[in-house]
Amino acid sequence: MKKNNITLALAAALTFGVSTSATAAGFQLAEYSATGLGRAFAGEAAMADNAGAQFRNPAMLTYLEGTQVSTGAIYVDPNVDVKGELNGKPTEAKDIASSAVIPNFYLSHQLNDQIFLGLAFSTNYGMETELGGDFEATMYGNQAKVHSVEINPNIAYKINEQFSVGAGVRYVMGEGHFGAAMGGQDLKYMEGEDNAWGWQLGTAWQINDDNRIGFNYRSAVDLKLEGEASGLVFDMMAKQKGGSYTGSMDLTLPATAELASFHQLTDQLAIHASFNWTDWSSFDKLEANIDELGTQHIKDENWEDNYRFAIGSTYQLNQALVLRTGVAYDTSAVNDDNRTQTIPETDRLWLSVGAGYQVTKAFTLDGGFTYIFAKDASMTESETGLPGSFSGETTGNVWLLGVQASYRF
Q1: Residue 260 sits in a domain of what CATH number?
Q2: Cα–Cα 20 to 30 A to 97, which of 79, 158, 283, 360?
Q3: Which domain holds residue 99?
Q4: Is residue 10 part of a domain?
Q5: Residue 70 near residue 106 (C-beta atoms within 8 A)
Q6: How confident is the model at residue 26 (pLDDT cuts 50, 70, 90)?
Q7: For residue 281, what are the CA distances in angstroms to 78, 274, 278, 299, 319?
Q8: H/E element holding 341?
Q9: What is the Cα–Cα distance from 292 to 357, expressed in whole angstroms?
Q10: DSSP string spanning 262-278?
């Protein structure tokens, strides 16, 4: 399978579930900036700390003077286990997700008093999970991955002192795979890659000097992951051994929306909040379109829309040092009846702290830390043509640590 010429390790080892509990729901990533990490990403669509603000709302570019650059990375350490019984026999998979470093880069430029330009390199989606060979229920899925990199140019227009609008195009480069195995042999394995376009629109309303509301909508991106399939199931259908079959798998990265607010209560203290929605109901199943074999069922998902609620605060301790904190709650994108071992998706509670230090008038350093409690959740796996069933639960937690450097020219 050919590889993209531009490959950034932005989503390099995140799970299909609880490291997604480290992030947002499903295989969605929230970690676009270490600045926002310190407040649990509360109020992002209404805040403009640095050039990274455009990734959550391009209209916030109108709050960034001159030319600004911001870059950073977030380290994610998920601890995820799946355990249960396969036909009455206990089995367990530990640490199904690896740690990862998720980098980012942003650039903004004020063209004049009304027009602002921006460029973002980051990601909204990524995951990877692998259940080891000692796990007995790998016939229902033993590995899954989605990696994406996004290039996002933006433009914003300041209508007047109260209202701003912004828009951007999104070029998404994605790749992924899914597999199931039994007895150490692949039953089904499919991998592919594709590049696709999306867009985003944002608005900002400066109600008065102390209160602001922001809204952003990001479109769905439809990927057709073209590549190869292999495995015993496909070999049996093709009546051969060790075959490799060209084909594709459709995968939609869902639409999202955020409504956020910012309120300056005193000269030192501000509070901010966000309500997020993700159209995960568009993710109902995985199917492979194999050239020689036609449409082949891979996995039923039956996800539902999810919601995220976050509230945070910012305290300006002195001229150089700002302190941040936040709490958030992510609802699961799948119910108990449809949760699977390769997607151990569950509710998540975020607790975050962070700080920013103005090293010079032009240079700022930010840091953030988050600990995520993932709710223990049950799951049941069965599939037509496979004997018995798996019944178990997923448990886990995640911690994240990020740094961000920003410079104003």
Answers
A1: 2.40.160.60
A2: 283
A3: 18-408
A4: no
A5: yes
A6: low
A7: 25, 21, 9, 15, 46
A8: none
A9: 59
A10: EEE-SSSEEEEEEEEEE
